[in-house]
Amino acid sequence: MSRATKDSRFSHRFETLQQLSRDVLAHARKQGATACDVDVSEGFGQSVTVRHGEVETIEYNRDKGIGVTIYLGQQKGSASTSDFSTAALKDTVDAALSIARFTAADPCAGLAEAELLAKDSPDLDLYHPWDLPVESAIDLARRCEAAAFAVSPLVSNSEGASVSTQEAQFVSANSLGFMGGYPSSRNYIACSVIAGEGDAMQRDDWYSTARRGDALAAPETIGDYAARRALSRMGSRKVKTCQVPVLFEAPLAAALIGSFVHAVSGGSLYRKSTFLPDSLGTRIFPEHVTIGERPHLLQGLASSAFDSDGVATRDREVVVDGMLQGYFLSVYTARKLGMQTTGNAGGSHNLIVHPGKLDFPALLKKMNRGLLVTELLGHGVNYVTGDYSRGAAGYWVENGQIQHPVEEITIAGNLRDMFMNIVAIGNDTLCRGSKQLGSILVERMQVAGR
């Protein structure tokens, strides 16, 4: 897509965002700032929700903003505005300067070293505008929900089917000469339905998300699967308290790996609020676990040529044969730890947990007897100790086969033990965000029921 076509969809030309960045940097320098960092962004989109075939909501969003960070030596101040006028930009810079003057100096504050900044911004194919009229979006949502209701008369209610398209562009720049940015798009189709009769009601959902509208799963497929998931939960009951293997379905396995990322991120490490301190070069997972970071995947949902500090991103292996090879550090957290940034200001970029050879049915067979978890409730994770306790729902498995749905239970363990006791990672890879992986089988956890 040509630059002119891209620009025509936004309120401002990309070059305008670049010039606004230059204006902010120039005014900051004129006012005495020793360094400055600026982010200029705008975005727009639409979302529709249909419930029982009727349009429930149509939402349009359009926003813009400029964030400015000023340094006076190692004193730091930040301010932001949604007003792009010259006067507003100057006021925002002045506000950030005023804050910096009254802030204590922080020896770790400041921009990244110039040699670490991204020199260019390759096209990672992240922008695929979906020219979807609202009538067509409503039709997609209706088809999605209708497919769910068509599965069974027991699919008796709906929380709605939704279709969303979002587009954004941004420019990041700083006083060391760095300037980068790009447009991006993200779309999704989702459906949530309720199955059952009387008091025996169950709900479940499913969704698909992608940069490209034509890369989404068909709305009928999403609705059908959401309905079958809800139906399969009918007749849920508790199980007796026990210690058994637990299989985390792929969407939940991503959250488990997210707990690992949190524990080895700079903020947790320098604050000593993690159960994995000083873990670089140590074994965190069993030997069959390898995790790579691939920031430059074309159309990746977490792809970027640079992080929020402007530091160039690169491919790397985070975990090799179970051994931790690298943390997730920004410029600031790296300095707090006496280390160098890993290009992860703002988070991880396309973490890929290498799959094993087993598909989902084979994982169930390997587990033999235990709990398949498909929903987690609450936020019972203590990152200081690693203690893990979450409300859960899913299915009881015997002889490698699902026997019946389970609800109103709690699963508990310690993340350090859970990571080390990962028996297998499935090849049922799912990607909905910054992590790509299949289902994860943990050897043993405490299941509290009746």
Automatic annotation (TrEMBL):
Start and end residues of each Metalloprotease TldD/E central domain: 127-233
Transmembrane segments: none
Swiss-Prot/TrEMBL GO biological process terms: proteolysis
Family: Belongs to the peptidase U62 family.
GO cellular component: cytosol
Domain Metalloprotease TldD/E N-terminal as annotated: residue spans: 36-100
GO molecular function: metallopeptidase activity
Family matches, as NCBIfam families: PRK11040.1 (NF008268)
Species this protein is from: Candidatus Proximibacter danicus
Keywords: Hydrolase, Metalloprotease, Protease
Domain Metalloprotease TldD/E C-terminal residues, every copy: 241-449
Name of the molecule in the record: Metalloprotease PmbA
InterPro entries reported for this sequence: Metalloprtase-TldD/E_C, Metalloprtase-TldD/E_cen_dom, Metalloprtase-TldD/E_N, PmbA, TldD/PmbA_N, TldD/PmbA_sf
Highest taxon above the source species: Bacteria
UniProt KW ATP-binding keyword: no
